[in-house]
From TrEMBL:
Keyword check for Membrane: yes
Annotated protein name in UniProt: ABC transporter permease
Subcellular location: Cell membrane
Taxonomic placement: Bacteria, Pseudomonadati, Pseudomonadota, Alphaproteobacteria, Hyphomicrobiales
Residues spanning the membrane: 30-53, 60-85, 97-118, 159-181, 201-225
Naturally occurring in which organism (per UniProt): Microbaculum marinum
Length: 235
């Protein structure tokens, strides 16, 4: 019990003093996850909006696929990205395996279906509401996608925050393609797993506290955006 108390005390001390090793891991985690969400948004937002606005053969199957990929197992994504980036893989010449870029790619693959599926639902609801008005103005599907994406920006920010929450908590895929190399690819989740197995509970607890704070912060932002959207709708 005393060892646990000492570990908690040291964990808070690491956070309070902004320990260099702790800060390095947190900053790398944020850089990788934010980059992954940015890439996922560039793909997922227009993809979801196009699925909501347009009608074409196979659309239903594609929607089912996107929704199914929201539950894609992280270790499977890690394995596929590993095969893609390994020396024997098609992109092996780029030498990206065991780098932050490889982890960003893996997280982006995981997050893109989430953002795309949520975007499709949000934009589809708006499209049903404004479809007649857009058609009366002669707005084509391409312009309609841009208009609806802009109009739904508050809800879509919530979708991206959800994607960030998924990315920052990821461990399976990033440990496969990143290798959990100290000072290179060690992020919060992989460091927690490693330090716990080593018995270094202080650093693991400190990183765990920060990860929880980030999760709470993301949820607080989601609720704030939702409340703001509801107030704007009432006005």
């Amino acid at each position: 019990m005393q060892d646990f108390a000492a570990a908690f005390g040291l964990a808070f001390r690491l956070i309070a003093t902004a320990d260099a090793g702790l800060v390095e891991i947190v900053l790398l985690s944020l850089r990788v996850s934010l980059s992954a969400v940015a890439i996922a948004a560039l793909v997922g937002l227009p993809l979801g909006a196009v699925l909501a606005v347009t009608r074409f053969p196979g659309r239903g199957a594609l929607i089912v696929l996107v929704n199914a990929l929201m539950g894609l197992p992280p270790v499977v994504v890690g394995l596929l990205v590993y095969l893609l980036l390994s020396r024997a893989g098609p992109l092996g010449v780029l030498e990206l395996l065991y780098t932050p870029t490889a982890m960003t790619i893996a997280q982006a693959v995981l997050v893109t279906p989430i953002i795309a599926a949520l975007t499709r639902q949000v934009v589809d609801d708006l499209h049903r509401e404004y479809d007649e008005q857009l058609r009366s103005l002669g707005v084509g599907w391409y312009d309609a996608v841009g208009t609806l994406l802009w109009d739904a920006r508050a809800s879509l920010a919530t979708a991206m925050l959800a994607g960030f929450g998924r990315a920052i908590a990821e461990v399976g895929a990033v440990i496969i393609v990143g290798g959990n190399i100290a000072h290179v690819t060690r992020v919060m989740t992989t460091a927690i797993a490693l330090e716990t197995s080593k018995g270094d509970l202080a650093l693991a607890l400190a990183l765990g506290f920060i990860l929880i704070l980030l999760a709470v912060g993301v949820n607080a932002l989601v609720m704030a955006l939702r409340d703001h959207r509801l107030e704007a709708a009432r006005a």
